[in-house]
Amino acid sequence: MSHLRSFVVRRLLLGVAQTVAVVLLVFALTEALPGDAAVALAGDQPDPARIAAIRETMRLDRPAHERLADWATGLLHGDFGTSLTSGRPVGQYISDGFGPTLLLAALTVALLVPIGFGLGVLAARHEGRLADRAISSMTLAVYAVPEFALGVLLVSVLALRLGWLPPTAVGYGTDLLGHPAALVLPVLVLLSRPVCSLSRLVRAGMIDALASPYVAQARRYGVSGARIRYTHALPNALAPAVQQLARTIDWLLCGVIVVEALNVIPGLGTVLLNAVAERDAPVVQGLAVVFGVLTVVLNLGADLVAHRLAPRAGAAA
């Protein structure tokens, strides 16, 4: 128990340090951008009064360390700043976009876990036979297709040619649950590569466990095949699978820009694209911090769960 507590404390301290590093890195990268942000935001024919107003709004007339202190203090109080283009709070942009992105992520994970584990267990159970070869070939082929190419293919065939599904979510706003057909194509695209990675991880972990002396001895004692697979072999694959799942959730929440843009989903990816196109630095900064903190928190949680599962996996092996 003391070892676990020590590990948790170390990882929490590391998580805090990583979060601070994310804030500093985002601010430093923004500062390193070439040119004058106020001039760029003022338009093609900038008015000196508008440039001065933008510089005052962005606090560009103050030293960098003061602006960093003000921004970091605001972040601690949940204040991400104000959009330069609309005057709305950045936090409102984040909250508006978080709902659709979270919905896509939740639906994808809800399908990913049973399908990924199911395919991995099935392949390991029939190692070297037709089912294993078919699953391995299928997952390798699907994983090789980029999300954008697969998304275009699905939209072209299922939406435009066959007319089974809407090609985009245009006109539905953020009420995507009320129009579930608009979620089918993006969820299929988001599910494609993660299910391949997860199933192959589960398969490899179970095959290693099933070939171990511990399992061989369990068989000699007459333990049933199902109990060996699910009680002794499957836990061996849980630790790496949990870490892979955390990376997938991180990608679903922070990296689905291509899928959201293709299907016109009003999520965080779309908010980020619009902010970059409009050179709205506070919105870009706020989203970058949110993405960075989500990555730190998800990986921290995965490390803690994997550490907790590791002794069981080791005992099973």
Fold topology:
Layout: H1 2-32, H2 37-42, H3 48-57, H4 64-76, H5 90-125, H6 130-143, H7 147-161, H8 181-210, H9 213-220, H10 225-254, H11 257-263, H12 268-277, H13 281-316
Could you characterize what this model shows?
The protein contains 13 helices and no strands. With about 325 residues, the chain is an all-alpha fold. The protein is flat. Mean pLDDT is about 80; it is low at about 310-315.
Attribute tags:
317 residues, mainly alpha, 13 helices, flat
Uncertain stretches of 5 or more adjacent residues: 312-317
Average pLDDT over all residues:
80
**For the terminal residues, how far apart are their CA atoms?**
22 Å
Number of strands: 0
Structural class computed from helices and strand pairing = mainly alpha
Secondary structure tally, helices: 13
The amount of helix comes to over 70%
Approximate strand percentage: under 5%
Shape: flat
Largest beta-sheet details: none
Q: What order do the helices and strands follow? A: HHHHHHHHHHHHH
Give the radius of gyration: 24 Å
Quick synopsis:
Helix content is 78%, strand content 0%. It is mostly helical and 317 residues long.
